[in-house]
Amino acid sequence: MIVDRPRKLDDTTEKAVQLFAESGIVDEERVAAQIRLAELLLQTNDMERPKSLLNDALKQAKTVGDLASVTRIEQLLRQHLLQPSADANSTLSERSIDPIFETLIDDEAALTSDMQTHHASAAFKAREDEGELSIEAERASLRRQIAQHKLNRNRLRERAAKHGIDASISLLNQIDDEEREIERIEQELQELEGRA
Protein backbone atom coordinates (compact mmCIF):
# COMPACT_ATOMS: atom_id res chain seq x y z
CA MET A 1 0.00 0.00 0.00
CA ILE A 2 1.43 3.39 -1.01
CA VAL A 3 0.77 6.22 1.41
CA ASP A 4 0.43 9.76 0.14
CA ARG A 5 3.12 11.23 2.41
CA PRO A 6 2.32 14.96 1.89
CA ARG A 7 -1.39 14.38 2.61
CA LYS A 8 -0.50 12.29 5.69
CA LEU A 9 1.73 15.15 6.91
CA ASP A 10 -1.12 17.63 6.34
CA ASP A 11 -3.48 15.42 8.36
CA THR A 12 -0.93 14.98 11.15
CA THR A 13 -0.30 18.73 11.34
CA GLU A 14 -4.04 19.43 11.33
CA LYS A 15 -4.54 16.94 14.18
CA ALA A 16 -1.65 18.46 16.18
CA VAL A 17 -3.17 21.95 15.87
CA GLN A 18 -6.55 20.58 16.90
CA LEU A 19 -5.12 18.78 19.95
CA PHE A 20 -3.21 21.90 21.04
CA ALA A 21 -6.41 23.96 20.73
CA GLU A 22 -8.38 21.43 22.79
CA SER A 23 -5.69 21.23 25.47
CA GLY A 24 -5.32 24.99 25.83
CA ILE A 25 -1.53 24.65 25.84
CA VAL A 26 0.27 27.74 24.59
CA ASP A 27 3.93 27.13 23.76
CA GLU A 28 6.44 27.27 20.92
CA GLU A 29 5.40 23.86 19.58
CA ARG A 30 1.78 24.96 19.20
CA VAL A 31 2.90 28.10 17.39
CA ALA A 32 5.16 26.03 15.11
CA ALA A 33 2.30 23.63 14.30
CA GLN A 34 -0.03 26.53 13.48
CA ILE A 35 2.58 28.14 11.24
CA ARG A 36 3.23 24.83 9.45
CA LEU A 37 -0.48 24.21 8.87
CA ALA A 38 -0.96 27.79 7.65
CA GLU A 39 1.95 27.31 5.21
CA LEU A 40 0.34 24.13 3.89
CA LEU A 41 -3.07 25.81 3.57
CA LEU A 42 -1.54 28.84 1.84
CA GLN A 43 -0.78 26.51 -1.07
CA THR A 44 -4.54 26.27 -1.64
CA ASN A 45 -6.86 29.12 -2.63
CA ASP A 46 -8.43 29.31 0.85
CA MET A 47 -7.03 32.40 2.59
CA GLU A 48 -9.39 32.69 5.58
CA ARG A 49 -8.16 29.63 7.50
CA PRO A 50 -4.44 30.48 7.16
CA LYS A 51 -5.22 34.08 8.18
CA SER A 52 -7.02 32.86 11.29
CA LEU A 53 -4.24 30.39 12.13
CA LEU A 54 -1.54 33.04 11.67
CA ASN A 55 -3.42 35.58 13.80
CA ASP A 56 -3.79 33.01 16.61
CA ALA A 57 -0.16 31.97 16.25
CA LEU A 58 0.91 35.64 16.38
CA LYS A 59 -0.90 36.18 19.69
CA GLN A 60 0.54 33.00 21.15
CA ALA A 61 4.07 33.71 19.92
CA LYS A 62 3.89 37.09 21.66
CA THR A 63 2.56 35.45 24.81
CA VAL A 64 5.48 33.01 25.01
CA GLY A 65 8.03 35.59 23.77
CA ASP A 66 8.97 33.64 20.65
CA LEU A 67 10.44 36.47 18.53
CA ALA A 68 11.61 34.14 15.76
CA SER A 69 8.05 32.91 15.24
CA VAL A 70 6.66 36.45 15.40
CA THR A 71 9.09 37.41 12.61
CA ARG A 72 8.17 34.32 10.55
CA ILE A 73 4.44 35.02 10.94
CA GLU A 74 4.99 38.64 9.93
CA GLN A 75 6.81 37.44 6.80
CA LEU A 76 4.02 35.01 5.91
CA LEU A 77 1.32 37.64 6.37
CA ARG A 78 3.19 40.10 4.18
CA GLN A 79 4.18 37.55 1.58
CA HIS A 80 0.87 35.77 1.14
CA LEU A 81 -1.85 38.02 2.44
CA LEU A 82 -0.80 41.51 1.49
CA GLN A 83 0.43 40.95 -2.04
CA PRO A 84 -2.11 41.76 -4.72
CA SER A 85 -3.09 38.67 -6.63
CA ALA A 86 -4.91 38.01 -9.87
CA ASP A 87 -7.65 36.27 -7.90
CA ALA A 88 -9.49 39.06 -6.08
CA ASN A 89 -11.33 36.55 -3.88
CA SER A 90 -8.12 35.42 -2.19
CA THR A 91 -6.67 38.89 -1.57
CA LEU A 92 -6.97 40.67 1.74
CA SER A 93 -6.96 44.41 1.80
CA GLU A 94 -3.88 45.95 3.31
CA ARG A 95 -6.12 47.86 5.69
CA SER A 96 -7.37 44.68 7.38
CA ILE A 97 -3.82 43.68 8.35
CA ASP A 98 -2.49 47.13 9.36
CA PRO A 99 -3.49 46.80 13.07
CA ILE A 100 -1.62 43.50 13.27
CA PHE A 101 1.61 45.06 12.01
CA GLU A 102 1.13 48.17 14.15
CA THR A 103 0.79 45.94 17.23
CA LEU A 104 3.72 43.79 16.11
CA ILE A 105 6.01 46.81 15.64
CA ASP A 106 4.98 48.32 19.01
CA ASP A 107 5.44 44.99 20.81
CA GLU A 108 8.84 44.46 19.22
CA ALA A 109 9.96 47.96 20.29
CA ALA A 110 8.72 47.40 23.85
CA LEU A 111 10.37 43.97 24.00
CA THR A 112 13.65 45.37 22.68
CA SER A 113 13.52 48.14 25.26
CA ASP A 114 12.80 45.64 28.04
CA MET A 115 15.69 43.46 26.92
CA GLN A 116 18.05 46.44 26.86
CA THR A 117 16.91 47.48 30.34
CA HIS A 118 17.37 43.92 31.61
CA HIS A 119 20.88 43.71 30.14
CA ALA A 120 21.79 47.11 31.57
CA SER A 121 20.54 46.04 34.99
CA ALA A 122 22.58 42.82 34.80
CA ALA A 123 25.67 44.80 33.77
CA PHE A 124 25.23 47.16 36.72
CA LYS A 125 24.89 44.22 39.10
CA ALA A 126 28.08 42.67 37.72
CA ARG A 127 30.00 45.92 38.11
CA GLU A 128 28.55 46.48 41.56
CA ASP A 129 29.94 43.09 42.58
CA GLU A 130 33.31 44.36 41.44
CA GLY A 131 32.84 47.58 43.40
CA GLU A 132 33.01 49.82 40.30
CA LEU A 133 29.67 51.60 40.66
CA SER A 134 28.87 54.27 43.13
CA ILE A 135 25.50 54.26 44.85
CA GLU A 136 24.59 57.50 43.10
CA ALA A 137 25.27 56.03 39.65
CA GLU A 138 23.11 53.03 40.52
CA ARG A 139 20.30 55.31 41.74
CA ALA A 140 20.45 57.22 38.47
CA SER A 141 20.30 53.98 36.52
CA LEU A 142 17.27 52.76 38.48
CA ARG A 143 15.49 56.08 37.93
CA ARG A 144 16.12 55.82 34.16
CA GLN A 145 14.79 52.26 34.18
CA ILE A 146 11.64 53.36 36.02
CA ALA A 147 11.13 56.19 33.52
CA GLN A 148 11.53 53.79 30.58
CA HIS A 149 9.08 51.27 32.05
CA LYS A 150 6.56 54.03 32.73
CA LEU A 151 6.90 55.16 29.12
CA ASN A 152 6.37 51.56 27.93
CA ARG A 153 3.35 51.18 30.22
CA ASN A 154 1.80 54.42 28.97
CA ARG A 155 2.26 53.40 25.33
CA LEU A 156 0.63 50.06 26.06
CA ARG A 157 -2.26 51.79 27.85
CA GLU A 158 -2.80 54.02 24.81
CA ARG A 159 -2.94 50.96 22.56
CA ALA A 160 -5.39 49.29 24.95
CA ALA A 161 -7.55 52.41 24.92
CA LYS A 162 -7.65 52.30 21.10
CA HIS A 163 -8.99 48.73 21.25
CA GLY A 164 -11.43 49.38 24.11
CA ILE A 165 -13.02 46.20 25.41
CA ASP A 166 -11.47 44.30 22.49
CA ALA A 167 -7.96 44.78 23.91
CA SER A 168 -6.13 41.47 23.84
CA ILE A 169 -5.20 39.54 26.97
CA SER A 170 -1.60 39.71 25.80
CA LEU A 171 -1.72 43.51 25.72
CA LEU A 172 -3.31 43.68 29.18
CA ASN A 173 -0.69 41.24 30.50
CA GLN A 174 2.08 43.44 29.08
CA ILE A 175 0.63 46.42 30.96
CA ASP A 176 0.58 44.37 34.18
CA ASP A 177 4.16 43.22 33.55
CA GLU A 178 5.35 46.81 33.15
CA GLU A 179 3.57 47.84 36.37
CA ARG A 180 5.16 44.94 38.29
CA GLU A 181 8.58 45.85 36.91
CA ILE A 182 8.09 49.50 37.95
CA GLU A 183 7.17 48.37 41.48
CA ARG A 184 10.17 46.01 41.64
CA ILE A 185 12.64 48.67 40.54
CA GLU A 186 11.10 51.29 42.87
CA GLN A 187 11.51 48.84 45.76
CA GLU A 188 15.12 48.24 44.72
CA LEU A 189 15.66 52.02 44.65
CA GLN A 190 14.15 52.41 48.14
CA GLU A 191 16.39 49.64 49.48
CA LEU A 192 19.41 51.30 47.91
CA GLU A 193 18.51 54.66 49.42
CA GLY A 194 18.00 52.97 52.79
CA ARG A 195 21.62 51.71 52.65
CA ALA A 196 23.01 55.14 51.89
Model description:
With 196 residues, this protein is mostly helical. The protein has two domains: 5-90, no CATH class; 94-195. It is built from seven helices and no strands. It has helices at 5-23, 28-41, 48-64, 67-81, 94-129, 135-163, 169-195. α1 crosses α2, α2 runs parallel beside α4 (67-81) and α3 packs antiparallel against α4. 20% of the residues are buried. The model is unreliable at 1-5 and 82-98 (pLDDT under 50).
Low-confidence stretches: 1-5, 82-98
Helix content: over 70%
**Number of DSSP strand runs:** 0
Radius of gyration: 22 Å
Q: Number of domains in the coordinates? A: 2
Number of helices: 7
Q: What structural category do the secondary elements indicate?
A: mainly alpha
Task: Provide the β-strand percentage band.
Answer: under 5%
Main β-sheet, in a few words? none
H/E element sequence? HHHHHHH
Task: State the separation between the terminal residues, measured CA to CA.
Answer: 79 Å
* Spatial shape: elongated
Mean pLDDT: 74
Short description:
This protein has 196 residues and is mainly α.
List keywords for this structure.
single chain, 196 residues, 80% helix
